[in-house]
Fold this protein.
Amino acid sequence: MNEHIEQLVSLQMIDLEIDKIDNEIKQEQIALDKRISTLAEREAHITEVQARIAQLEKDRRTLDDEMGDKIAHVRDRQSKMMQVQTGREQTALLKEIEDAKKNAKENEEKVMELMAEIERLTAEVDAEKALLKGEKELVSEETQKVRDTIENINKGKKTKGSKRQKQVKEIQESLLRKYDTLRERRKGLAVVNVVQGVCQGCFMNIPPQQFNQLLKGDKILDCPTCQRILYYQPEAETEQV
Ligand SMILES: [Zn+2]
């Protein structure tokens, strides 16, 4: 294998290990973020229910006030009963009293309904608050654990990083630039093996003439389809790696 390519293949091996480490860190962070956002959702839900309770309390107070007025109205009509003379006037007044009583009763029923709903929602909020408290404790423990895990993972990354620095020094600058660009554009894979004439990056065929050139190993060749840098490592050799 071309010596420059060989250096690149070693570099890529280190880089892929570093990618794996970065991905592990990311996964840990994602899992934690998810738990934290669940907490925020629960908190938002509690605030929402509390606002609903406040509104219901307000409605209840309004109904209470109205009921006072209605009862006063009934009393007023009842005292009027003494003064009316004709049967017709009496009947009208009686109907008015009946209506006002019915109205007050409906009002009272509504108040009872509101109170039941307020009680139900208050119980819900209390339960949610208790759950939230437990979850907050868990998440805080979890956060510490994740921090420790990431710290540990980062130690391994540091070792790989210094290995990478050493390896980078071995590589021509222009080739390194090309390698970095390819890694960025080709999902982290810049240098690929060719197996039975097929590029292992994009799995397209390499033209036979180019494959023959690759076998000679004196030139740096790119895959005509994905532009990755190609190398050739016979299969027996691959197994040993
Ligand atoms: Zn390719």
Summary: DSSP finds five helices and three strands in the chain. The chain has a mean pLDDT of 92.
